[in-house]
Amino acid sequence: MNQPSFPLPDRLRRLLPLLLLGSLALNMFLLGAMVSHGGPHGPPHGPPDPRHLVERLAADLPAADAAILWQAYEAHRPTLDARHAHDPRDAMRQAIQDGLRADPFDPEALIGRLAEIDQDEQRFHRHIERHLIDAIATMSPEGRHRLAAFRP
Length: 152
Prior knowledge:
The chain is mainly alpha-helical. The protein contains six helices and no strands. It folds into two domains: 37 residues; 103 residues, no CATH class.
């Protein structure tokens, strides 16, 4: 290991590893605090209410296309409502908090748990996207164009 270009007092040289460890611990504490409180601007807002989103989308569609959208929503409403009630970001925050509190800290376990949550979320999105696309495929070109112009 190279010696620093300026000499360090022996006492500081002995304390340096402890200072680095303390700095790491402080950073991990701050990360945990930010995650648990949603960052500097308060807790993040949850996902939009699925019914409210369908209402807004359907309001601008021709009646027949709005009916298709409502039928697709009603077919999956229990799943959508359950997912809305249990925001996956809550599971992510809890996993991070649990991981940071674990003694000894196991980075691989935390990475694995976060990957599980991410995979579950991806499966859910692919499932809903598939059914939504199937419904949109039966809509009129005008309805699809209005959906394309929608801005939440």
